[in-house]
Write a structure and sequence with these properties.
This protein is an all-alpha fold. Helix 1 runs parallel beside helix 3 and helix 2 packs antiparallel against helix 3. It is built from four helices and no strands.
Length: 106
């Protein structure tokens, strides 16, 4: 029982940090996608297929993040962190695909 309490407390602390980092990451990605969507020409390292793939992955990230926040709102910090880590990993992949620096969004 004590181990479970310790794991939950650790997860709550991790969630506290994650719940500010991941939304910032999502905001940065959305901003970049908006700019690229308005651009007439894509950067050299990005073709249309890769951009569409990044958009789809971003939607998956937002879905995972929604599941994470739902878990957090019900008090399930362990599940929230697990789903939040999946969202953050997907966000990192999207940022790299878009030529962004994931460390800058944290």
């Amino acid at each position: 029982r004590a181990e479970r309490e310790a794991a939950n407390e650790s997860a709550r602390q991790t969630w506290a940090t994650m719940s500010t980092e991941v939304p910032k990451m999502a905001e940065a990605i959305q901003s970049r996608l908006d700019v690229l969507g308005k651009s007439r020409k894509l950067p050299k390292n990005l073709d249309k297929a890769r951009l569409e793939s990044a958009r789809a992955d971003f939607e998956q990230m937002k879905s995972s993040w929604g599941e994470a926040t739902a878990a957090a709102s019900t008090g399930n910090a362990l599940e929230a962190v697990s789903r939040g880590e999946a969202a953050k990993a997907k966000g990192t992949d999207v940022m790299l695909a878009l030529g962004m620096n994931p460390a800058a969004a944290s």
